[in-house]
Specification:
Arc Repressor Mutant, subunit A; Rossmann fold; elongated
């Protein structure tokens, strides 16, 4: 069974205890370390080699974006970073652009946190659905992603739109090729075209763009979870 090693980054002990209790009965997830100190977190990343680091954006003494970049810069192995935040936290999507794999809202339930850790450990990207209370979602420094015109989506062909949706769900090129009965080289070609038409730089920006224009359903889907694909087909 997959053993997902998790490191908790939060300066509040009670919050860390609460998160640890959620994973207590999970046989595939193990909390191997915890800290609320910036430099100690970096030392634990190197020493413990966790698969996922959970960063609480509400921690008082931790700069989420800076911590994300430092973890990625000094990690020899691939590492997943999951950020816990409120819907309107400023700067959180900047951490996503810096390399974090996912954002989970603080009001999410324990099952969603467990699922998010499992998905991030597999390399998928996760973003919550757009806010439904009329407020603005978190801002990102890239102006073309901060206010993406929905009209740009109309430039995509039907097949490119299919690929766009699956990329925004975190699917790999191989999974997309299998699902759409395409060659991987064709999928790569479609992604290059999507990036050019939407004026984006990489796959993470596709996820952010989908989130900003309200086309992102909130949870990544993949071939082993076909029950969720009805959302994609009806989008």
């Amino acid at each position: 069974m997959l053993n997902i090693r998790v490191l908790l980054a939060d300066d509040r002990m009670l919050v860390r205890l609460g998160i640890k209790s959620i994973f207590a009965d999970q046989r595939d997830i193990e909390v191997v370390g915890e800290s609320g100190d910036f430099e100690e977190i970096l030392e634990l990343v190197v020493g413990l080699k966790p698969a996922v680091v959970i960063i609480d954006a509400l921690a008082h003494d931790l700069d989420t974006d800076k911590l994300t970049r430092r973890i990625i810069d000094q990690s020899a192995q691939s590492i997943g970073i999951l950020i816990l935040a409120n819907a309107h936290d400023q700067g959180v999507l900047s951490a996503i652009r810096s390399g974090a794999n996912g954002l989970l809202l603080k009001h999410s339930n324990p099952a969603q946190l467990i699922s998010a850790v499992q998905m991030v450990a597999k390399g998928y990207y996760l973003l919550p659905p757009p806010a439904d209370d009329g407020g603005a979602p978190p801002a990102t420094p890239a102006s073309h992603i901060r206010h993406p015109p929905k009209e740009r989506i109309e430039q995509l062909t039907e097949r490119e739109l299919d690929v766009f949706r699956l990329v925004s769900h975190g699917w790999s090129n191989a999974e997309i090729a299998q699902d759409l009965a395409l060659r991987e080289s064709t999928v790569k070609s479609h992604i290059r075209s999507i990036l050019a038409k939407l004026d984006l730089r990489n796959r993470v920006h596709i996820v952010i763009f989908a989130y900003r224009v309200g086309m992102f359903p909130g949870w990544a889907s993949h071939p082993s979870r076909r029950e969720t694909m009805g959302e994609r087909d009806s989008a």
